[in-house]
Amino acid sequence: MADLYRKNLESERRQLWATCRLKGLKRDTSERLRIAEIDRLLAEHEAKKQQPPVERGEG
């Protein structure tokens, strides 16, 4: 199954990064801050995905 949340974040990150490179934007711009936020969200999402499933006892 496709992970659409991750794909959307990565797509937005690539687009922002291309804009920053094209315009030569510095680190403290809103675009660069959003890239950092997207990196954090991707890391959190990946960490959630790699957690082992919780086993439930029947009862």
Structural overview:
This protein is mostly helical and 59 residues long. It has one domain. The protein has 2 helices and no strands. Helix 1 runs antiparallel to helix 2 (30-50). The longest helix is centred in the C-terminal third of the chain and has 21 residues, at 30-50. It is elongated and about 60 Å long. The relative contact order is 0.15. The mean pLDDT is 89.
Query: What is the 3D shape?
Result: elongated
Estimated share of beta-strand residues: under 5%
Radius of gyration: 16 Å
Order of helices and strands: HH
Question: How many separate helices?
Answer: 2
Q: List the uncertain runs.
A: none
Overall average pLDDT: 89
Largest sheet: none
How many strands appear in the DSSP assignment? 0
Into how many domains do the coordinates divide?
Answer: 1
Task: Classify the oligomer.
Answer: single chain
| Distance between the first and last residues' Cα | 31 Å
Which percent range fits the helix content? Answer: 55-70%
Structural class: mainly alpha
